[in-house]
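Most newcomers find our protein records easier to grasp once they have seen one. Read left to right, the backbone structure tokens trace the chain's path through space. Once this layout is familiar, the rest of the handout is easier to follow. The record below serves as our worked example for the rest of this section:


***
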Amino acid sequence: MRTSKAGILNNDKLLRLSLRDPDKGFTLIELIVTLLIISVILGYALPRIGNLAYSSDLKHSVRQLRAILSVARSLSTRDRIPRRVVCDISNSEIRIEREIREEGEDRIMVHYEEENSILIRTYRFPKGVEIQDVITEAGEKETEGEAYLGIGTNGVIFGNTIHIAKGEEQFTLTINPLTGRVAIDEGYIEEFKVEVPEEF
């Protein structure tokens, strides 16, 4: 009686395939299947990664703006020296300046100079992130040049809205002048003028 060796042959064939010579490389079909799988994964993942990076630059800038406003307010109340946050719209950067008073013969001269601490530096927005406009202490909407948000020694912030954007994505930062708290809203929201009491 003859017995079939099909099972043995198949096992031997599988063993030879798994122990094949590594110098022979891959077959063309194996390479095509691998490249196809990689292209499907990249086609799905890259747009998401791109959007995430695109969005993270803007969100990081929003956080930096909020931190700079908070630092400027803290410095003003701590030192009892007024500060101002300078939003350089044209150069897409923001910095803190302190008030300097010099007494002349018949008047007091007031000017500002940039904070020179190692920890407080001019912040440059990432490429593509821009300040659209700023509602300043005078209540004006500035769209170019430098816009100023003054901060009194009692922590009151004069000026209440900053709009920043990257491409189609926009954020509105609305500053509560009395508490210094910054509300962040997605999109471009028209400003609401908040009356601020005289500095005391």
